[in-house]
Amino acid sequence: GGVMQEFYETVQRQQEYEEDKMKWLERFLDETADQLVCTHCESLKGEATQCCDDKSWKFFKDLPLEKQMEIAKQEWELL
What we know:
Layout: H1 2-32, E1 36-38, E2 57-59, H2 65-78
Antiparallel strand pairs: 1-2
């Protein structure tokens, strides 16, 4: 036992958490690829707000990857 044991367990939990997160993010990117997203407010179609009009929709997979990751991470935080 002792401090090192606790340290290792904490690190391992952290790694598992990160792996889960990465798997979840990959799945989210995959499943959301063909969904429409508003280029203004970044809402998925169906959760649209005032700013979304017909010209502002874009497929999720057409957004820059860093944008996709940003949206995915926001969704992950909401879980």
